[in-house]
Specification:
Bound molecules: iron/sulfur cluster
CATH architecture of the largest domain: 4-Layer Sandwich
CATH class of the largest domain: Alpha Beta
CATH superfamily of the largest domain: Aminohydrolase, N-terminal nucleophile (Ntn) domain
Radius of gyration: 22 Å
Structural class: alpha+beta
Strand content: 25-35%
Shape: globular
Number of domains: 2
Distance between the termini: 24 Å
Oligomer: single chain
Number of strands: 24
Largest sheet: 7 strands, antiparallel
Helix content: 25-40%
Number of helices: 17
CATH topology of the largest domain: Glutamine Phosphoribosylpyrophosphate, subunit 1, domain 1
């Protein structure tokens, strides 16, 4: 699929050797959650040292000597998603503040939907901000709190926030971990000997050799220090609202999110798609890599061979070129190539996880036909994306969303496919573990778990 700009990824390590190195290693496996900037903050028990770079985790890892020197007792890290307009190191995380309680660094995944109104209020009261980030607001709220303990100050702050947030705080001696009351984004906890590890996805625990303990619960605030882990509940909501798109596309299939294997659910999604929209075909092909698992599920259910008819070049990186039509096609060709032997004279089912603008899929369909495909039947393993996400996913505006402008038939024609079908909301939520009522599917059905305040930023993960 065309890459939706993603949210962010978090890591935290308390205790054990090489805390900084471990966080940086863990961030490698969360790279898919953000490619714009990367950072790590480490405490030696007294002071916090922050290292941030624009770009991929490899950019941070080039700072061998500095990472080596960041010895300490605990460390947190962050990969930030890519966007335009506010792409600068000031918005990179973790963010560090000096407060009357000592230094506090924070890393955030999500979007605080009432950040604009809180920020406006604070600016009227005289606060000065260094970044355009909603995360900085969290630090201000904690710093200004009159509560006695840090747990109370963080709690007082968290209950003022609406939207999605997974947060990892680092102080000189402790780590605090929090997740919003709906549990919109994933966040898990693991152990490696005596070391505590927290991460956005369990694939980061696997990389470190840590074992999964449990998810951070929605509305939970954990404090981790030399005495172990203490947990409190800062809020309760009537239900959960996990982002269903994490299962469709964002999370890695080798991760366990929302207490279930992403691979397992993504296969079920593919199977549900085959049940709803079967077709006569010779081969099932995926748009690699994000659709591989759903395509496998489709093929298994439909009893059609799955084969690799499209190959993705993983070494292209980001391409900053003029997005005129011709160049767009070149850009798709830079990333994908066809395998003619798999496609020639075949009726092909092409499985993709979603359609946003449809530009990539249009070129891919043409490439399949150029490689000799007799028929191309597009099957999408999610419903049409119709609405913005306020919880950390950067979908384009409604005017650019193909499904909010064209009917399914018009979209099929534009893509040049023989048939086009989407998985229904019922079909998608029908395979969601724990029941449909525990998921957000607002980008498909417009039902946000809570009212979105006027003037909210649509996405921000800073
Ligand atoms: S609106 Fe869509 S992408 Fe955003 S949290 Fe809800 S399901 Fe996920």
């Amino acid at each position: 699929m065309e890459r939706i700009k993603e949210e962010c990824g978090l890591m935290g390590v308390f205790g054990g050797p090489e805390v900084t190195r471990r966080v940086v290693m863990g961030l490698y496996s969360l790279q898919h959650r953000g490619q714009e900037s990367v950072g790590v903050a480490t405490t030696n028990g007294e002071t916090i040292h922050v290292l941030k770079r624009m770009g991929l985790v490899t950019e941070l890892n080039k700072e061998e000597k500095e990472i080596e020197s960041m010895t300490g007792i605990a460390s947190i890290g962050h990969v930030r998603y890519s966007t335009t307009g506010n792409s600068n190191i000031n918005n990179a995380q973790p963010m560090l503040a000096s407060t009357k309680r000592g230094p506090i660094a924070v890393a955030h995944n999500g979007n605080i939907v009432n950040a604009p109104e809180i920020r406006k209020r604070m600016e009227e009261e005289g606060s000065i901000f260094q970044s355009t980030s909603d995360t900085e607001i969290i630090l201000h709220l904690i710093a200004r709190s009159q509560k006695t303990t840090l747990v109370e100050a963080i709690t007082e702050t968290l209950v003022q926030l609406t939207g999605s947030f997974c947060l990892v705080f680092l102080t000189d001696k402790e780590i605090y971990v929090a997740r919003d009351g709906y549990g919109i984004r994933p966040l898990c906890m693991g152990r490696l000997d005596k070391t505590w590890v927290v991460a956005s996805e369990t694939c980061a625990l696997d990389l470190l050799g840590a074992s999964y303990v449990r998810d951070i619960k929605p509305g939970e605030l954990c404090r981790i220090n030399d005495n172990g882990l203490e947990s409190t509940t800062f809020t309760t909501k009537p239900h959960r609202a996990h982002c269903i798109f994490e299962f469709v596309y964002f999370s890695r299939p080798d991760s366990r999110i929302f207490e279930e294997s992403c691979d397992k659910i993504r296969r079920k999604i593919g199977k549900a798609l085959a049940k709803e929209h079967p077709t006569q075909a010779d081969v099932v092909v995926s748009v690699p890599d994000s659709s591989n698992t759903a395509a496998l599920g489709y093929a298994q259910e439909a009893g059609i061979n799955f084969d690799i008819g499209l190959l993705r070049n993983h070494y292209v990186g980001r391409t900053f070129i003029d997005p005129s039509q011709n160049v767009r096609e070149q850009k798709v060709k830079l990333k994908f190539n066809t395998i003619a032997g798999v496609l020639k004279n075949k009726r092909v089912v092409l499985v993709d996880d979603s359609i946003v603008r449809g530009t990539t899929l249009k070129f891919l369909t043409k490439m399949l036909r150029d490689a000799g495909a007799k028929e191309v039947h597009i099957r999408i393993s999610s419903p049409p994306v119709m609405n913005p996400c306020y919880y950390g996913m950067d979908f384009p505006s409604k005017t650019e969303l193909i499904a909010s402008n064209l009917t399914k038939e018009e979209t099929r024609k534009l893509l040049g496919a023989d048939t086009l079908e989407y998985l229904s909301i019922k079909g998608l939520l029908g395979v969601a573990p724990g029941g449909a009522e525990n998921y957000c599917a607002a980008c498909f059905d417009g039902k946000y778990p809570e009212q979105i305040p006027a003037g909210s930023t649509k996405f921000r993960c800073e």
